[in-house]
């Protein structure tokens, strides 16, 4: 967190050796990418553990009409459930990346580590209660698509994840440059 970096003066050392802008954007990229990879890696481990216990699916017994109606349902119908789950995890990982960066931004002003760790949960709870016509946190779920093409939906979610992430990184840079 940035509060620990400020406490141990790592921010000053990094700014003196290089550039504060490079430090902030490198740390923001690591936070964002590690959140996405943690979501995808955790999902993969869970799926592989489940795969050792039960088969993927029994198409004759269950009805997957809801899953096949949209949100990468063609991957399930083609018999590629692992790819389906990984793309769905990517969607959720993009949301996790934004929430982690927002938590890192809050860590500049909050010294309480527990509150900083709770921040992603508090933010997603708040965002779930706010539903405007333009933005909803449900857009990050793979099942809810804005466009008819799945890949357009993935690109859209990537854009609505990267733009706030860049704005949050710029806010972190501005806040840290004021504190130095």
Task: Label this structure with key terms.
180 residues; mainly alpha; 8 helices; 74% helix
Shape: elongated
How much beta, percentage-wise? Answer: under 5%
Rg computed from alpha carbons, rounded to a whole number of angstroms: 19 Å
Class computed from helices, strands and strand pairing: mainly alpha
Number of strands: 0
Q: Alpha-carbon distance between the termini?
A: 16 Å
Low-confidence sequence ranges: none
Q: Helices and strands, in N-to-C order?
A: HHHHHHHH
- Mean pLDDT equals 81
Largest sheet: none
- Count of separate DSSP helical elements: 8
Helicity, as a percent range: over 70%
Plain-language structure description:
By secondary structure, the protein is mainly α. The chain contains 8 helices and no strands. It has helices spanning 2-7, 10-17, 20-53, 65-68, 73-77, 81-109, 113-129, 150-179. α3 (20-53) crosses α8 (150-179). The radius of gyration is 19 Å and the shape is elongated. The model has no long low-confidence stretch (mean pLDDT 81).
In short:
By secondary structure, the protein is mainly α.
Strand and helix layout:
Elements: H1 2-7, H2 10-17, H3 20-53, H4 65-68, H5 73-77, H6 81-109, H7 113-129, H8 150-179
